[in-house]
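Reading group handout, session on sequence-to-structure problems. Before we discuss, look at one worked example. The prompt was deliberately terse, the way you'd type it at a terminal:

> structure L-rhamnose mutarotase

The input record follows.
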Amino acid sequence: MENAIRNAFTMKVKSGFETEYKIRHDQIWPELTALLSESGICDYSIFLDEETGILFGVQKLSSGFDRSQLSSHPLMRKWWNHMSDIMETNPDNSPKTNSLKEVFHLD
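And the output record:
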């Protein structure tokens, strides 16, 4: 994806649910991965700090990516509901995230 915007953020999995988090992502719904791709997200990875439960997400976003459109999609909300019992979430069940500032990049 040319002119992709790199995006990094943290989330948190609840203590004791690290394995379940991995299982659910190993079984991610194909229609959700399609939605993410169609929305302009590619090259998406999530890493886990096993000591703290902090999840580090990194993704590339197309220049036309619209987070509000994805956030309001019923399938995205269904996924958030599915994950809400094992993650720190906002009142709407979206994961609590902390955006990270890029301080170095090497291609």
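Points for discussion. First: The first strand starts at residue 5 and ends at 12. Second: Strands lie at 5-12, 41-49, 54-61, 98-99.
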